[in-house]
Write a structure and sequence with these properties.
The chain is an alpha/beta fold. It has helices at residues 3-10, 12-28, 34-46, 51-67, 73-88, 111-124, 141-152, 165-178, 195-212, 230-242, 261-269, 290-298, and strands at residues 99-104, 129-133, 156-157, 183-187, 217-225, 247-251, 273-277, 285-287. The chain has 12 helices and 8 strands. An 8-stranded mixed sheet has the order 3-2-4-1-5-6-7-8, sandwiched between helices.
Length: 299
């Protein structure tokens, strides 16, 4: 399948609900009035677009309809697609070499699978990748990551459970330098309940990277489970407060009817969604495309 078809398939649950409600809205009104915009607001909020983002989108739509004298609900729907795409649009994630890519997120959001998928994507465009298992606190984390590293055919650097994460990253850096790898992907502990420890751990890893591999570009991507909706948005805000997050990987979009959370993340956090995930296969992660996403959302 092409990019649009993959996104369309992955967004089926969201699209079935959202586009159905949009169809009913357009069919129920002959002209645009306050009731139309109020019902539209409810539809967007139910899709987890978020109150702030919904208010922005509806306000822009009102202004556009007034300025361009749009009075037809169908034309208003088409205008809304462009407004939502504009809110979400961003530049693609930039690969650099050498690069240390930190993958951050609470346990259970799909960090491990995302790392395997990223490694596969990066290798497909000719990058040499090494995976580093620095989540040494969660039981069997390294073993699970090893399975995905093997599936991606990427070497993995790990130590025993409970080891110092910074020490594992040190080993990973030495391996990346010695093997002339382009990208070192680092799995980190998903411990949001103790923000202070998490922040100190990330700082320590950063110091090791700066000392041992200063020429490497350091970036951090946050993994969010789309099925958690607004809770995922709150998690992202906390992580953003304690870490220098470059952007978002949004997983499990195929498991929710509230895929609008992607729009809320972009607007409310000011962070780009770089990748979206739909399943368990290595090629189920796709680069985010705002126009394709909105087209798939509307059906």
């Amino acid at each position: 399948m092409g990019l649009f078809d993959r996104i369309k398939s992955g967004l089926k649950k969201t699209r079935d609900v959202f586009s159905g409600r949009m169809e009913q809205l357009v069919e129920s009104y002959k002209a645009l009035d306050d009731d139309f915009f109020e019902d539209l607001t409810d539809i967007l909020i139910m899709a987890d677009v978020g109150v702030k983002t919904t208010e922005l989108a509806v306000t822009r739509l009102r202004e556009k309809c007034k300025a361009e004298k749009i009075g037809d609900p169908e034309k208003a729907r088409q205008a809304l697609k462009g407004i939502l795409a504009d809110i979400m649009r961003t530049e693609p994630f930039q690969l650099e070499s050498p690069m240390i890519l930190m993958i951050i997120g609470v346990n259970g959001v799909g960090k491990t699978t995302s790392i395997g998928k990223l490694a596969t994507r990066f290798k497909m465009v000719g990058r040499r990748v090494i995976i580093c298992a620095a989540d040494t606190f969660r039981a069997a984390a390294a073993e699970q990551l090893t399975v995905w590293a093997e599936r991606a055919d990427a070497p993995i650097i790990k130590q025993k459970e409970g080891a110092d994460p910074a020490a594992v990253v040190y080993d990973g850096i030495q391996a990346a330098k010695g093997r002339h790898a382009d990208i070192l992907i680092v799995d980190t502990a998903g411990r949001l309940h103790n923000k202070t420890h998490l922040m100190e751990e990330l700082k320590k890893i950063g110091r090791v990277a700066e000392r041992e591999y200063p020429e490497a570009k350091r970036k951090a991507l946050l993994v969010i489970d789309a099925t958690t909706g607004q809770n995922g948005l709150q998690q992202a805000q906390v992580f953003k407060d304690v870490a220098d997050i470059e952007g978002i990987i949004l997983t499990k979009l195929d498991g929710t009817a509230k895929g609008g959370i992607a729009i809320a993340i972009r607007h409310e956090l000011g962070l780009p969604v770089y990748y979206i995930g739909f399943g368990e296969q290595l090629d189920d992660m796709q680069p985010f495309d705002a126009d394709a996403f909105v087209d798939a959302l509307f059906g």
